[in-house]
Each structure stands twice: as C-alpha cells, then as structure tokens.
Amino acid sequence: MSPAGRPGRKHPTRPLWRAAVLLRVITLFFAAGVVFTHRGDYANTGLAWGTIGVMAAWTALTFWYYLRAGHGRLWFTIVDLAVCCALMCVSRFALTHEQLTALKVPLLPTVWVTAVVAIGAIRAGALGGAIFGLVVSAFNYGVRGYFDTDLTRDMVLLVGVGIVLGLLSENQVRAAEIAERLAQAMRAEAATAERERLARTIHDGVLQVLARVRKRGRELGGEAAELAELAGHQEVALRALVAAAPLESTSDGHADLRPRLQVLASDRYQVSVPATAVLVAECAATELTFLVREALENVDRHAGPDARAWVLLEDVGDEVVLSVRDDGVGIAAGRIAAAEQEGRLGIARSIRGRVRELGGTISLETAPGAGTEWEIRVPNKRGERGQR
Q1: Predicted structure pTM score
Q2: Same structural domain, 166 and 302
Q3: For labeling, which of 51, 107, 154, 201 is most exposed (least CB within 10 Å)?
Q4: Which of 179, 212, 228 is the last residue of a domain?
Q5: Which residues contact 375 (CB under 8 A, 6 or more apart)?
Q6: Cβ-based burial of 132 (10 A; exposed 0-12, middle 13-18, buried ≥19)
Q7: Which secondary-structure segment (H or E) carries 281?
Q8: Angle between helices 149-202 and 14-37 (to 10 degrees)
C-alpha cells in the first residue's frame, strides 16, 4: 500500500489526488444532468434531487480534505467508500422496479462513484484499488438485483482502473524514494570528495607541523614538553575529524550518528562505529552525542589521569546500543546516590534523564578499581521500517 505522506514535504502522489477530486467534480455534474433528464420519471423525484445535494456536499468536503492534506487517511477513504455505497442504495427508493430492471435507468450516483475507486487506488495501491472496485461493483449488482453483461463490464472496468491507478501510485512513491536516495548518495559523494581534498591538504600541512612540534617539544622538555602534549592532542583530534564520515541529515529528519561520535576520538578515547550509516532521529543523535561527551568528561574528571576510554556504537535494527567503558578507578558503592543527595545531578539528570526522554534504558557496571561501563539502549523506529 502507498505510504501516507510525510509532514513537511510534498507527497509524490499529490498530482494524482488532484486528478481524483477533479474527476469527482466532473462526474457530479454528469450525475446532476442525468437526474435532470429523468426528473419526471422517478418514483421519488425529491429524494433524487436530495441525493444530488448530499453528493455535492460530500464532494465539497472531500475536495477540501484531500487537497488540504495532500493525501487521504485510510479511515477517511473507507468512510468515503461507505458514503458512496450508501448513496447507491438510495436508488432503490427513488427509482421504480421497472426502471432498475427493465429500463436500466442509471443509478442516482451513476459514474460519480468511480472517483472513490480512484481515491482508494491512490491511497492503498493496486490491491486497495481492486478491493474498492469490487465493493462498488457488488453494490451495483445488489441494488440492481440481477447480473448481466453490462454490469459485469462495469465491474471489469472499475477493478481494472483501480489496479492501474494503484500501480501508478505505488510507482510514483517508489520513484520518489529512489530519487531521494540518489540525491543523498550524490551529496555524500561530493562531501567525501571534498573531505579527501581537505584531508590531503591538512595532512601535508597542519598535521605535519603538529607532529613536528610534538616531537621537538618532547626533545626540549620543560614547558616545551607541555606544548608538545597539547599539540599531540590537537593532532589526534584533527585526524579523527578528517577521518569521520560527513555529517548528513535525510529529508525525513534522520541523521547519521557515526560522525558525531567519531570526532570525540583522542589519544585517550577510542571510538568504534559500524561501516554503514546508523540513522536515528536528528534530535536523538544530538542527545546521544551529548551523553557520550558527558560520559567522557566524567572519565577526565574522576577516572584518573592515566585512564583510557572506549566508545562502541552498534545498530541492532530496532534499537541503537552505545557503550562507554573506561579502565579508571571506578565508582564506589553508593557514591552516585550520595552525589544526588548533595545536589550534584550530573548522572541522574544529564545522563539518565536524557535517556529516559528518548524512551531508552541505561545500565551501569562499575566497582572500585575495575573501571566503569555505561550501556545505553535507545529504540530506533526507523530501524523497524528498515534502513534505507
């Protein structure tokens, strides 16, 4: 079935919706002309004109709804089908038995109901279009009360139109998705080429200078050694920045989490990420990056001057798993609870609170002298629909 449109972007089937509502308007005038032609023949002419009035009101409502939304909700489309079938049934009270059977006078809605088959096909694809066509045909048979070649021909046409329009709708959506992926791939290729050019420039210039400063400073010792240490930190950070994947966001509000974590690597922190993009909601990417940064700052402040840390990112489909482990002094039992009582809420509010807002879970394993390991699991709704 064709997916509903995403908020904030033009849905690829919008032109088809415009054509469907225009078809409904045109067929409304045709139905009104048929009633006018047979105005003196109906068993209940007032009911016939009343049906046309209801059809006009429903046409106006659906015209506004489908064009405003750019696509139809499935429940509303089903209600639309029910209204059309109900108006077909009204023909049994407005037409005589002879008109329904022998004279074969058109039902009150006539071809007006074909629009709902088109709408069902656009909204629900080929299968939905075929089902809508079968339902309308079944009511056509039921209201008439007999089977013949003409009614069967109408059924074939309705089902065929539903299938063809449904396939067209599905192809429109699929083509739009392919175009989006192609545009994203071209942006990524251009960004990668630019990063490689910058990487060559930086490697031939800045990185070599920093490496020279680090080496010479260590040889000189004293204050120069401190400058060498700072130059070494900046060299590692700059290498991590150059090696990181380009920052990208998709048109539906998702971002690759990998480059946001890769830039945190240093001579003390190692960051391991998958080779393929880990796409999460953009707000989640921001929050998770902050959490990892906060955890690494805690390593700086509390784990000891020689502690090292390792960050591991995993994408397991329906959730993203982040672990931050260090080999520092660990956390004594009851220390976190004591910090909360003292009003220092870094772990409680900054880390656990943010994970809770993302709908995830967080676990901590630590012991004095055994280091610390945080494991963060956040549900990834995009993963449930399949990575694109």
Answers
A1: 0.58
A2: no
A3: 201
A4: 179
A5: 321, 322, 323, 362, 363, 364, 365
A6: buried
A7: strand 279-281
A8: 160
Spatial CA neighbour of 327 closest among 363, 367, 370 = 370
pLDDT in tens, 337-365: 555 555 454 554 567 777 888 888 888 88
On whether residue 266 sits in a domain, the answer given is: yes
Q: Is residue 311 within 8 Å of 270, Cβ to Cβ?
A: yes
Tracing tokens 């990834």 back to the chain, one arrives at 380
- 149 lies in some domain: yes
Q: Which domain holds residue 282?
A: 248-388
Question: What is the dihedral angle through the alpha carbons of 201, 206, 211, 216, rounded to the nearest 10 degrees?
Answer: 140
In terms of average pLDDT, the best of 18-22, 68-72, 196-200 is 18-22
Residue 306: inside a domain: yes
Tell me the C-alpha distance between 281 and 269, whole Å: 25
Q: Is residue 175 part of a domain?
A: yes
Give per-residue pLDDT as tens, 102-117.
878 889 999 999 999 9
The larger pLDDT score, comparing residue 68 to residue 344, is at 68
- How far, in Å, CA of 387 to CA of 1, rounded? 19
Q: What is the CATH number of the domain that holds 317?
A: 3.30.565.10
Last residue of a domain, one of 152, 179, 206: 179
